[in-house]
Amino acid sequence: MKKSSKMFASAAVGALVLTGGITAVANAVTVPQQSAPAAVPAVDVAANPETVVSQNRISVGASADAVKAALAKCQADKLPFVTVALVDRFGTVQALLRGDNAAEHTIEAAKQKAYTAAAFGAPTSELAGRISGNGKPSIADLPGTLFLPGGVPLKVNGVSVAGIGVGGAPDGMLDEACATAGAEAIAGAAK
């Protein structure tokens, strides 16, 4: 063996011994165990009208039926480039169906029209007339809303629980006719 190889081998053995010694010392040191944080108990809230609000929602099946019916109406009217959205009263999407050739902006338009109708409990065509054009802040400035025709509220016992919106037709009233067809498709489902 050459002298340089012996030195390298010697250095390698020394490193192993040194590493082994450090490992042995590290393993011999005991680290105190930290106790787990105390569990925070869950608080069981009584289910009564003073503390809990019950909420009606449109079922997944009815939501799917509504958006399909709305899109079918638009397709029958030769408007395949629309998007239909059904949202709960908080704006959470329950169902969304994008028609053939529907542009990207129609998705947001449909969701915003649906939310606006649900939040205000009125068709967006009616709400559009309430906007003042005098440059002052108005309800049209609320985030996530769109005050163009095409959104229809869905109500249970007179209370708005959801909205269906259509975006993409060349006229908002065409959007609204499709949204109305979707709403009507599920209106009598529970009766």
UniProtKB/TrEMBL annotation:
InterPro entries: GlcG_carb_metab_protein, PduO/GlcC-like, PduO/GlcC-like_sf. Pfam families: HbpS-like (PF03928). It comes from the Bacteria. Residues 1-26 form the signal peptide. The keyword Electron transport does not apply. Keywords: Signal. This is Heme-binding protein.
